[in-house]
Amino acid sequence: MNVKFNNRDPVYVQVIRLFKEQIARGYFEPGQEIPSRRELANQLKINPNTAQRAYKEMEEQGLVFTEGNMPSRITKDEAVLKRVREELIVEAVENFIGSIKTINVPLSEVLELVKEKYDTESGEEEGSE
């Protein structure tokens, strides 16, 4: 796993976001075993305590679960998985709106351009499979 961490946000928060993005993309399936804290720390080249903090937070959010001495796994709770996806979508939309409002583009024009680009991008992805 090759990840570039920014200097603005705590690393453990960025690790949680990475997991959320990978869940939303389907890289991690519900119930799938995830790397141990030590393995993750080695893969991401982060402090094991940082990995531990990220896992603890993800468990508190219901994103992952650990039963006894078994490896941690991605939740199977559909409501949690849906919430993660919606959270990422809302964040992306808010960032987009924040940047587009600064140039005073009418909503109708924005929606037209978004639809056009979305359709173009979707077509390219389908053609590349």
Automatic annotation (TrEMBL):
GO MF terms held by the record: DNA binding; DNA-binding transcription factor activity
Domain named HTH gntR-type: residues: 9-77
Family matches, as InterPro entries: Tscrpt_reg_HTH_GntR (IPR000524), WH-like_DNA-bd_sf (IPR036388), WH_DNA-bd_sf (IPR036390)
Alphabetical list of Pfam families matching this protein: GntR
Alphabetical list of CDD domains matching this protein: WHTH_GntR
Sorted UniProt keywords: DNA-binding, Transcription, Transcription regulation
Name of this chain's protein: GntR family transcriptional regulator
Organism: Bacillus aerolatus
